[in-house]
Design goal:
This protein is of the alpha/beta class. α6 links the parallel β7 and β8. The mean pLDDT is 92. The protein starts with a strand and ends with a helix. Helices cover 38% and strands 18% of the residues.
Length: 372
Amino acid sequence: MSIFYFGYYTANGNPNNFFEFPGCNNKMNYIVRCIKKNNISISVMCLGESKDGVSHSNKKLKIDSLEDNFFIGTTKYRFFSKLYLYFQIINLLLFKVKKNDTVIFYHSYYLLFLFKSIKAFKRFNLIIEVEESYKAAWGKSDSEINNEIKNLKGADAYIYVNDLLPNFIENTKPYVVCYGDYQVKDTISTTRISSEKKRIVYAGLIAEEYDSDIYLAIKAMKYLDNSYHLSILGYGSDSALKKLKQYIVENDLSSKVIYEGFLKGGDYINFLNNCDFAINPRVLSDNLSDYTFPSKVLAYLSVGLPVVSTPIRCIEESKVSDLISFSEGTDPLSFSNAIKKINLNTNPVFKIESLDKAFIIDLKRLLENVTG
């Protein structure tokens, strides 16, 4: 029996020039690592559409003795790009995946129906990895969210991103919970908190809306003195980045807020190591954020950074809640007050290491339960 992992994965290379999704790469890469820690072989089916408008053939990379990556082909015809993606997934599920094989599917809203439909008669073991409800992330109605949740039912097992999701989707089927990458980074700074300047970092999406997470962070800086300095690491559209820089200048915050660009890999970790603490401002209400978990929180904790967050139920009811300093509300003044009161006497590394060891064991048990 074989294990196949389907998702938008380019962590080991991008020979077909797919559009890349950093969050997906990080989480899938961690789960692959944990599977291999159990000495289990895995084939990663790397999905995507080409961003260069060029046709690419299928490609296979042998990563090591336990892992290979298969990159689907792409078409130069934009109009048919999505259909071509669907066709190749169908082809893989019908002819490459065998009965009683295990398929781990990184939940993508527009692909779910393919996996569930083909499973119905092909009878492979299906594990759905639920990282979020897309309808909740898009701020849709309760009925649309509930419909998406309903469609997620019926898998053989689940990998959930928080402790709340099992009660919404399936808690009678085998499941494990993984908030993000628990791998503690090797290069952790031991010299933090400068008395002269408190270096804060925000990493994540740069949205255009003024009521988004990034603008909550920037507005909070208005209530902090010049000893606080905020570095923004993130990605967004050209217009969103232009708007961000303009807002910083227009509000006279250039001396203590700066956009550092988008960093990844070692550059990202090294930058975090030069910061004193990190922030996780979220403006989503609980009824929407219950369906996700901010991956940046794990990135911060895994390098030993203390974290300030707005009060979010998915974090408050998690195993890392005692590592987080929460604000009383989600307004800029309340968030700035929490920053001033941050608890610096936390050592998140030991907790993250224990979560890593536990998840490796739990994931092995999950795979054994599914395969029988």
